[in-house]
């Protein structure tokens, strides 16, 4: 199928969905993908290498028109949408499409497939967006907000602010939010040890997040053995 188009029409979207099905790894793999992602969407188990190639081809043409078709029929097409949204250079346009995407997500795989291009030029815009998302009442919007925070840890500008965000989820009940928060705390410990250790010593995170973050640190080759032993004493 020709994926480099000047215009994407409804019939092109229908043809694209049929094309995706031809790339499926089969029913057994699709059922496995559905269990792992825990989604209500249909699953095709299209290999990630195909998803990346397809996204790159579509991006050579008018990919915003592809996004405007808002194909959301299966998990694989959400991955394509995620890849394309992250290729949008104008931040306001990116934010518009991401908001729609975030509010449609029902699974961790769709959120975690977002590969944000965060730079010195847009990092403050991303942080502002994260602060909005983490206050959402929707599980996967909050998870995307925490995912943005995780990516922002490579900058020193937001360390304490991000730890404050982690600490704001004490009453959080959603597994997929708490799990992302645990990843965030673990990554923060690797990149900003002292500040994160101070937070963990206070034991003010919810029990799941505190203990899971410590477990992830224990499993990480980037955390020294002596720190792993220290962190064991901070489990709740």
Which shape, going by the Cα principal axes?
Answer: globular
Percent of residues in beta strands?
under 5%
* Poorly predicted segments: none
Helical content band: 55-70%
Rg to the nearest angstrom?
19 Å
Largest sheet: none
Query: What's the number of structural domains?
Result: 2
- Structure classification: mainly alpha
Distance between the termini: 55 Å
Question: What's the count of strands?
Answer: 0
* Average pLDDT metric: 97
Secondary-structure element order, N to C: HHHHHHHHHHHHHH
Our count of helices gives 14
Describe the structure in your own words.
The termini are far apart. By secondary structure, the chain is mostly helical. It contains 14 helices and no strands. The chain is globular and about 60 Å long. Helix 8 runs antiparallel to helix 9 (139-152), helix 11 (175-191) crosses helix 12 and helix 11 packs across helix 13 (207-219). The mean pLDDT is 97. The protein has helices at residues 10-22, 27-37, 48-59, 63-68, 75-85, 91-104, 108-112, 123-133, 139-152, 159-167, 175-191, 193-202, 207-219, 225-232. It folds into 2 domains: 1-115, no CATH class; 134-236, no CATH class.
């Amino acid at each position: 199928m020709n994926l480099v188009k000047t215009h994407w029409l409804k019939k092109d979207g229908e043809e694209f969905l049929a094309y995706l099905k031809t790339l499926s790894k089969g029913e057994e793999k699709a059922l496995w993908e559905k269990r792992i992602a825990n989604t209500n969407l249909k699953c095709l188990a299209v290999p990630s290498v195909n998803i990346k190639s397809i996204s790159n081809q579509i991006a050579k043409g008018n990919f915003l028109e592809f996004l405007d078709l808002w194909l959301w029929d299966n998990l694989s097409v959400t991955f394509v949408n995620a890849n394309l949204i992250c290729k949008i250079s104008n931040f306001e346009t990116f934010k518009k499409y991401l908001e729609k995407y975030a509010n449609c997500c029902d699974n961790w795989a769709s959120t975690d497939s977002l590969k944000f291009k965060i730079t010195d030029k847009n990092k403050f815009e991303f942080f502002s967006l994260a602060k909005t998302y983490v206050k959402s009442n929707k599980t996967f919007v909050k998870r995307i907000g925490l995912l943005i925070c995780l990516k922002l840890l490579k900058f020193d500008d937001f360390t304490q602010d991000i730890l404050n965000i982690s600490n704001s989820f004490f009453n959080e009940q959603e597994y997929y939010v708490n799990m992302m928060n645990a990843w965030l705390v673990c990554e923060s410990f690797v990149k900003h040890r002292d500040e994160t250790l101070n937070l963990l010593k206070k034991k003010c995170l919810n029990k799941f997040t505190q203990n899971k973050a410590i477990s992830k640190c224990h499993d990480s080759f980037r955390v020294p053995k002596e720190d792993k032993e220290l962190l064991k004493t901070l489990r709740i």
